[in-house]
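User: what does the whole thing look like in 3D?
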Amino acid sequence: MNAKGGTNSFDGHPQVTNTNIAELNQGIDAWVENDFSGACPVRDLLDRIGDKWSVLIILRLGQQDERFRALLRAIEGISQRMLTVTLRGLERDGLVHREVFDTRPPSVVYSLTPLGVSLLGHISSLTDWALENATTVELAKSRYDANT
Amino acid sequence: MNAKGGTNSFDGHPQVTNTNIAELNQGIDAWVENDFSGACPVRDLLDRIGDKWSVLIILRLGQQDERFRALLRAIEGISQRMLTVTLRGLERDGLVHREVFDTRPPSVVYSLTPLGVSLLGHISSLTDWALENATTVELAKSRYDANT
DNA sequence: CTGAATCCCATCGGATACTG
DNA sequence: CAGTATCCGATGGGATTCAG
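Assistant: Here's the predicted 3D structure for the full assembly of 296 residues, as structure tokens:
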């Protein structure tokens, strides 16, 4: 099955047409051709949200602003190092805002920027998809593995 | 700035409320707690679309079904090995269908499954976001790097 | 509390060569 | 054409230690 010959509509989500996808691929190609040196924005985004922690941090900050230590406790399994590293990356990309309160002991609060909030919507629809189709995917894997 | 205290609406996209995000986090937590052994569907999805080639392949197959060699030419920079490996992964997850035509020489056509098509919508809205906000992000990086 | 610096290993993915 | 197998360098990320 494929997407040929028409418009695929998804319940409640924006419609996707072949034209859209074609334009997208063209957009990507354009970046690849014009500046092969590296900076494809799609690649960049995938590298970010593809890393181990960025999405979980964005989802958490989508709920509420939070301090460093609180994030460390909230996000199960993350190391201190990776929390700082990932937050720096998100801050650099303009997705997360870092505010320092000069108290004793020091307090630093992280929050989503407007840009971060705008990304949050797309990310959560993706993670929604993952949760909704978890069993389907799991089933597909079992069937695939069964047929060796 | 943050998402506290209300509903964030995005132009043309589904609305995102704090409740949604909270439920999402709960959903993730549930998986983490109940089966820490590994299989969080969100983690799984991120691992897949976070790898170097899956998204590009899905976008390409969203345009048209295609044979192995054609994909290899279409997707700039991918190695033969990674194309097979990635296609196997996508097939295992039930996102891509593989059809073998027993001709000489052999021909194998890949296409998106209905599940793959349903994911395509979310992915393309993400990559759309990346292209739309590319300059904004680039600017944020420059400003961040400037302030060392 | 918030972080930077170091060490170190597991995995990802590219190059290359070989098969049906 | 459509793969598989091996080798191997680059990178991601955890544990630990030190600093303001």
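In plain terms: Chain A touches chain B through 77 residues (CB under 8 Å). The first strand of chain A starts at residue 7 and ends at 8.
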